[in-house]
Amino acid sequence: MALCLSILLYGCEVWCLREDLFNRLRCFHHRCCRTMCRITISHTIRHHISSESLQKRLHIEPLDTYYHRRILRWAGHVSRMPMSRAPRKLLTSWVANSRPIGCPQMTWGRTLKKALLCNGLSSEFTKWRDLAANRDEWRVICGSTSRRATNKAQPNNSRQAIWTELRSGAQQRFLP
Question: Which of 77, 81, 103, 116 is the most buried if burial means most Cβ atoms within 10 Å?
Answer without folding.
Answer: 116
